[in-house]
Write a structure and sequence with these properties.
Blueprint lengths: L3 E5 L9 H9 L4 E2 L6 H11 L6 E6 L1 H12 L4 E7 L8 H4 L8 E6 L7 H11 L3 E6 L14 H4 L2
Parallel strand pairs: 1-2, 1-3, 3-4, 4-5, 5-6
């Protein structure tokens, strides 16, 4: 059975944004939804969408990266891997993941010119939380305009 692949967009984006549109076109079986409202409303929607699903590959961009991480801390047994794009880990409610060590594969891409989410701060959180981390600081901005489409998504999402 194939893994369940999910894209979670950032705070000021939607399923219609550049990344959401890319995933819907290239990976039609991927779950790409809109997440609106307060944090708990977004998490409730994510929980409802993923109810009963396992072997999850979550791709989270910025705020969506924080949501993917939060979900993973609550239900690590359901996660196959995370791909986080400039994740807002510095905004996570820390009580959920406090003192956890997540050991499934986590890949992070973060732009060295990100002026929205500080890469250094995110890296420090990530290296404490994730034991199987592949971290890539790339010459790019917060949206990863130059990097995103050139990534090997077929491999990342397998």
């Amino acid at each position: 059975m194939a893994p369940t692949r999910v894209f979670i967009h950032g705070l000021e984006s939607s399923s219609q944004g550049t990344k959401g549109s890319f995933f819907k076109e290239k990976f039609p079986d991927m779950i790409v939804e809109d997440f609106i409202g307060a944090f708990e409303e977004k998490m409730d929607k994510l929980n409802n969408i993923l109810a009963g699903k396992g072997d999850l590959i979550l791709v989270g961009s910025s705020y969506g990266g924080m949501m993917a991480c939060e979900f993973s801390c609550r239900m690590p047994e359901r996660i196959k891997k995370l791909i986080l794009l400039a994740p807002a880990l510095n905004h996570m409610p820390h009580e959920i993941c406090l003192d956890m060590k997540l050991n499934f594969p986590i890949t992070i891409y973060h732009g060295n010119r990100d002026n929205v989410i500080p890469p250094g701060e995110v890296y420090e959180i990530a290296r404490k939380l994730f034991t199987n981390l592949s971290y890539h600081l790339v010459p790019d901005d917060h949206s990863l305009h130059s990097t995103f489409v050139g990534l090997d998504w077929d491999s990342l999402l397998s």
